[in-house]
Design goal:
Elements (H helix, E strand, L loop, with lengths): L7 H64 L3 H6 L6 E10 L2 E10 L15 H102 L27
Antiparallel strand pairs: 1-2
Helix pairs in contact: 1-3
Length: 252
């Protein structure tokens, strides 16, 4: 605080800083609240998705066991065929309160489906069920991956935002208020000093005037005692000693 000169200009500067810090605090507080709500929503969705995915995964692998029982071990035939992907994963971005969250989506590549002849001898229906079950499981995995990645990213953003909010609330704003209090105290002290100085100057002038008037009065008294009235200091009316009746009449 001692490094800040206590002037009116600095007082206005720090008032502007305080106003900006308070506005930033309010905005960051709203952002933190929005991120917290989204964070809780993601946590709830992750818990529900994991619960649902465990059921879907059990159903998918159980259907695979049923298909192997009905159509035999067809895994080797799948590996021997072409492995051109019909589904790929793309990454997008979702903006939540200024925070960019990754979102994973799947899209069809347009490749021709291979191994369609599986299950012609037997178990074709079971193999189709396996394909549908694992497609559903893939959707759940993509959803969980998006939620989990967004959850982690949002957690880091929430921590940073909370640190900024706490820094503004507990460090920056109190420091600015302390500087403003210091400047106000110093300015008040300067005003009191100026008032006291002006009062002393006024008292000194009044005392000097009194002394001068006393000296003049003393000089007038001394002149009168010597029988001479000074025009310089005599304030008596010159016509007060004359009477018009004493004058002789003048005839023209």
């Amino acid at each position: 605080m001692a490094d800040v000169p206590p002037t009116r200009m600095n007082q206005q500067v720090y008032k502007g800083k305080k106003k900006a810090a308070e506005a930033g605090f309010k905005l960051l507080k709203k952002k933190a609240d929005a991120l917290k709500v989204k964070f809780q929503d993601f946590a709830k969705q992750i818990a529900e998705t994991k619960s649902t995915m465990s059921i879907d995964a059990s159903a998918a692998f159980f259907s695979l066991t049923q298909a192997e029982y009905a159509a035999g071990n067809f895994k080797q035939k799948v590996f021997e065929g072409g492995l051109t992907a019909r589904i790929r994963v793309g990454a997008g971005v979702d903006n939540v309160a200024g925070v960019k969250l990754p979102v994973f989506t799947k899209y069809e590549t347009g490749a021709v489906a291979e191994n369609q002849s599986l299950g012609l001898v037997g178990g074709g229906k079971k193999i189709a069920t396996v394909r549908a079950k694992f497609t559903t499981l893939l959707d759940m995995l993509l959803k969980l991956a998006s939620l989990q990645t967004s959850f982690t990213t949002l957690d880091e953003a929430l921590k940073v935002t909370n640190r900024r909010v706490n820094a503004l609330e507990n460090v920056t704003i109190p420091k600015i208020e302390g500087v403003l209090d210091y400047i106000a105290r110093e300015l008040d002290e300067l005003e009191r000093e100026d008032f006291t100085r002006l009062k002393l100057v006024k008292s000194a002038k009044e005392e000097a005037i009194k002394i001068k008037d006393a000296e003049r009065e003393a000089e007038r008294v001394a002149e009168r005692e010597r029988g001479f009235t000074s025009k310089k200091y005599d304030d008596k009316d010159m016509t007060a000693d004359y009477d018009a009746a004493d004058d002789a009449e003048v005839v023209f």
